[in-house]
Every structure is written in C-alpha cells, then in structure tokens.
Amino acid sequence: MSAFGFLLHQERPEAVELGKMLASWLVDRGHEVRLLSTDALRIGRPELGVDPDEFAVGLDLVVGLGGDGTILRAVELCSDEGVVVLGVNLGQLGYLATVEPTQAKAAIKRFLAGAYHVEERMRLAVHIRRADGTVHVVRSALNEAIVERSDLGHTVRIEVALDGEPFTPYVADGVIIATPTGSTAYAMSARGPIVDPRYLAQVLVPVSPHMLFDRALVLDPTTLVSLRCGGHRPAHLSVDGRSEGLLEPGDAIECTASDVPAQLLDVGGAGFHQVLKSKFGLHDRV
Predict the structure, then answer these.
(1) Residue 268 reports pLDDT greater than 80
(2) Centroid of chain to Cα 86
(3) Residue 121 and residue 254: Cα distance in Å, rounded?
(4) CA-to-CA distance for 229 and 52, rounded, in angstroms?
C-alpha cells in the first residue's frame, strides 16, 4: 500500500470536493492518506489530519489541488523529504499544475501502476547575510527570490556580486533571481527570458532599472549570487511569493542551486511547450 498526501487550495470549494472524493477512494482501497489538520476538517475527515512537520514524512506522493501557488506550497513542505508532487489544476491553466480535475483519479492510478516518470526541477538555496555577519537560512525557492523596494515612490540600490566578485549595482524597483521554472513567473513579466524548466541555470532579472544596463543574465546554477542592499533605503525580500521581511542597508541575500531539487510527477499531461503555447495563444502556422 502507498501513502498519499493532499494539499487543498484555501479558497476554492472544488478543491474540497475533489479532495474528499480522492481521499475516500484511496482509504477504501487500503492506502494511507494525510492532510494538514485544517484541510482534513474541511473535507470532513479530521482523523486524516496531521501537523505540517509530520505531513511529508514517509509519503509516496503529494497531490496539490489548486493552482501553481498550491504546488509551490507542496514543494516547500515535501521536497526535503524526497516526496514526488502531482499538481491538479483547479484554476487558470498553470505551468506546474498540469493535470485537469477530471484526470486526477487516472493520474493517481498511473502512479500506482508505475506508468509515470519524475521530472526534477532545480530549486534555489537562499540565505540572508546580515551586515553584522550573522547568517539566516530561509526556505528554498522553486520559482524565485526577489529583493525589491520597500517604499512606494522610491527605487532601491542593489549591489550584485557573482562568486564573491562585484558585478554591478542596480538602481531599480528590484532584482529577481529565478530558476528556470520561475522564468515564466514574475521574471517573465519583467521581460526576462523564458527558460525550459528542465534546464539548470539562475536567471537574474532587474525590475524597472533606472540605468543604461537593463539586461537579464542567465548564470551557471552553481554561481553564488549576492544581492546586497546598498544606499540608505531598506529593501523587502520575498521567496516564492512569501515575505521574508526587510533587508536593512548592508544586508544581503546569497543564492545558488539547491542540492535538493523538486520532484514533479509527469503522467503525460500537458507539457511545458503546450502550456506555453496555450498561455500566449500561439498557433502551429501563421
């Protein structure tokens, strides 16, 4: 028997209905099913609820029912345990949640039959180096880490160093360090390149830079990228859309490829190129 975890979108009732159906179907067949305690209450199965620090241990598959944000949360909870994640799309067409609700049960059946493969996605290891030399490790990022202005109406000075060597300061609204997976998120809206998510790289993208050099950089995944808050204004740090607080002048973040990738289940749903074409309404022929 296998052990399954389910994460539900916090605002979509269809996630509750689908989660309730899939959880009952698996339990009736003798499989172990877990949800976060709050989600277990929502589907009326409180006995399946566990705390977040117990959720991923020993699971074979985590199913995220929602959108890309739900999948990011699943990856955050589960990747360090080596658990594979399946994304079921309950919103707009997503880049991570590629299985439709009507295909969810069939996808789980394929997993149980071994008819799948796992796609590894690079993550970023991120930590904060304070001006006083103390270091604080923050969550790994599947999409991006962003250092951006904390005050409306003002730019922020961000000093970039690569492998310990100064590169250039950016005076901008912010600077993004993205993975290939994250290249289709905020980085794309800032005119960064679209990178195949199976590629290994870091993508540095300035946001509205007030300077002549405004290009994005595609960097080796092992490069140690430092973004230091220069000047006299603080900056704000967010990782995969979640706030990590303020960076005071002299504080920096350092990013490089994580040793632990995310593992996403591929059961033959829409591939990256098909999703990209659909997002932009691209046609096979002019």
Answers:
(1) no
(2) 13
(3) 20
(4) 33
pLDDT tens-digit readout, 47-95: 999 999 999 999 999 999 999 999 999 999 999 999 999 999 997 767 8
Q: Which of 68, 80, 240, 251 is catalytic?
A: 68
Q: Residue 99 carries which DSSP code?
A: B
What ranges do the domains of the chain cover? 3-121+261-280, 124-257
Question: Where does the pLDDT of residue 286 fall: very low under 50, low under 70, confident under 90, or very high at 90 and above?
Answer: low
Active-site residue, 259 included: no
Burial 137-169 (b: 16+ CB within 10 A, else e): ebbbbbbbbbbbbbeeeebbbbbbbbeeeeeee
Architecture of the structural domain at 3-121+261-280: 3-Layer(aba) Sandwich (3.40)
Q: Residue 147, SS3?
A: strand
